[in-house]
Structure formats: structure tokens, C-alpha cells
Amino acid sequence: MIKLSANRKTKTTLHRVASMLEYALLVALIALIAIPSIRMFGATLDASLVQTTFEVAAAGGIHCERGSSIYPSCLAD
């Protein structure tokens, strides 16, 4: 009976380790998909905001260039 009890504990421990490993692999897979997607979305959003800045500046008659001495904060990094 003692051997059965020890065997059950071993199976339970192995099951927990396998579950933790599955969870870690799932988190890693989600990160591999999510991180590049978020970076791509950020780059797209950045390009869109830069284009909008130029359009708004042009509509207001402001000559907006990076490093402009007249409007230095127009395209501040």
C-alpha cells in the first residue's frame, strides 16, 4: 500500500510539471505572436500620426520641418 501511495504522488507531481510546462509554452507562443503584432501596429500608428501632423501643419499654413527654427516643437522627437 505504501508503494501505491508513493506512485500516486509521483504521478500527481509529473502531471503538475507537465501542466506548468504546457502553460509556459502557451505563454511563449502568445508572446511570439503578440510582440511583433504590437510593434507593427505601433509603427503604422506612428506613420499615420506623422502624416496627420504634416496635413494639419499644411492646412494651417505652417511650414513644418524637422528642426525648424520657427516651430521647433512641430516635429519634436
Structure description:
The chain has 77 residues and is an all-alpha fold. The chain contains one helix and no strands. The protein has one helix spanning 2-59. The longest helix is centred in the middle third of the chain and has 58 residues, at 2-59. The chain starts with a helix and ends in an 18-residue tail after the last helix.
Average pLDDT value? 79
The succession of helices and strands, N to C, reads H
Helix segment tally: 1
* Alpha-beta content class: mainly alpha
Radius of gyration: 28 Å
Query: Beta-sheet strand percentage?
Result: under 5%
Sheet with most strands? none
What's the count of strands? 0
Task: Sum up the overall morphology in one term.
Answer: rod-shaped
Alpha-carbon distance between the termini?
Answer: 72 Å
Q: How much helix, percentage-wise, in residues?
A: over 70%
Low-confidence stretches: none
Secondary structure elements and their pairing?
Elements: H1 2-59
Question: What characteristics describe this protein?
Answer:
77 residues; mainly alpha; 1 helix
